[in-house]
Amino acid sequence: EGQTQNRGFIGLAALIFGNWRPSGIAGGAGLFGLAEAMRLRDADSVLAIVLLAAVVLAFVAIRSAIARRFVAAAISAALTVVLVVYYAKAEVVPTEFQFMTPYVATLLVLVFASKRLRPPAAAGKPWRKGQGT
Question: Looking at residue 82, what is its pLDDT?
Fold first, then answer.
């Protein structure tokens, strides 16, 4: 009891985001670990991460526009503008948002990344030692 400290859903999301591959799972764990680490940072560092997220979203918007995915480019550009305006006007990020970040990141990754991922063919099938496939 209490082994996952209420983060089992995030672990499952890392598994899905990593497409059931060890290198992908490590990347997913790193992403969610970064989101979790935001709780431990001071307000100035978290505000700098907001600016970093805006830069990453601007890159995604440009890349989506080049790939002719205009809806994704428009959404990414709009989120970039929102984050830049927030960065310019805010002095600190409320602690409530710092605590929400890992869960919001988990939901966003599952919504956007899980559409293109496929689970293993034998997922959910019972397996007994000695049985053939």
Answer: 93
